[in-house]
Amino acid sequence: MTLTPPPPRSVPTRSARVWRFGADVNTDQIVPGRFAPYMTSEAELRKAPFIEARPEFAAQVQPGDLIVAGNNFGCGSSREYAPQALKLVGVGAIIAPSFARIFFRNALNLGIPVFEADLTDLADGERVHLDLEAARIHTAGGERPLPPPPAWMREVWRAGGIVPYYRAHGRFPGVPGR
């Protein structure tokens, strides 16, 4: 399957909407199995993120918007198409105190910035600015630091994922060049 690239990622200081979710959001809630791209299509997958939990999400999310959730985001099955659907609609980053390990890795592989931080005090619909390079969120209440990601992770984000990174550099991040 070919992954169609999302709209270009916004500049780091663009205003973004916060989409709040609770704890233990599983991959079935992100994309129900009946929307798997091998059962439908990539075009249908774009319509599926949170179709049952928040039916308005896919139609209203804007490129660069943020998901802020509680603990254990992405638990459940190892469906790569759950983070893939979020990439297709242009989610700018996902911030949660903890992630299911395989979801975290799938998101990283697809180039979706993920931060382990507790920002559950942010309100649904709140407008913020995410500065990926500085690992900071700017809110009406002030600046909030995020755990700074390692340089190699930022390189993967900039490339749009691990495969585009490999294609551009002929190696994986952190591996010395040839």
Can you offer a commentary on this structure?
The chain has 178 residues and is of the alpha/beta class. The protein has a single domain, classed as Aconitase, domain 4, CATH 3.20.19.10. It is built from 7 helices and 7 strands. It has a 7-stranded mixed beta sheet, with helices on one face. Strand 5 and strand 6 form a beta hairpin. The longest helix has 10 residues, at 101-110. Residues 1-12 have low confidence and may be disordered.
Features:
single chain; Aconitase, domain 4; 7 strands; 26% helix; globular
The helix/strand series, from N terminus to C terminus, equals EHHHEHEHEEEEHH
- Cα-atom radius of gyration: 15 Å
| Estimated helix fraction | 25-40%
State the secondary-structure class: alpha/beta
**Shape call:** globular
Q: In terms of per-residue confidence, which ranges show pLDDT below 50 for 5 or more consecutive residues?
A: 1-12
- Could you say what the CATH architecture is? Alpha-Beta Barrel
Strand order of the largest sheet: 4-3-2-1-5-6-7
Compute the average pLDDT: 90
Number of strands: 7
Give the C-level CATH assignment. Alpha Beta
Biggest sheet layout: 7 strands, mixed
CATH topology term: Aconitase, domain 4
Strand content: 15-25%
Oligomerization: single chain
What is the number of independent domains?
A: 1
| Number of H/I helices | 7
Query: What's the name of the CATH homologous superfamily?
Result: Aconitase, domain 4
Distance between the termini: 30 Å
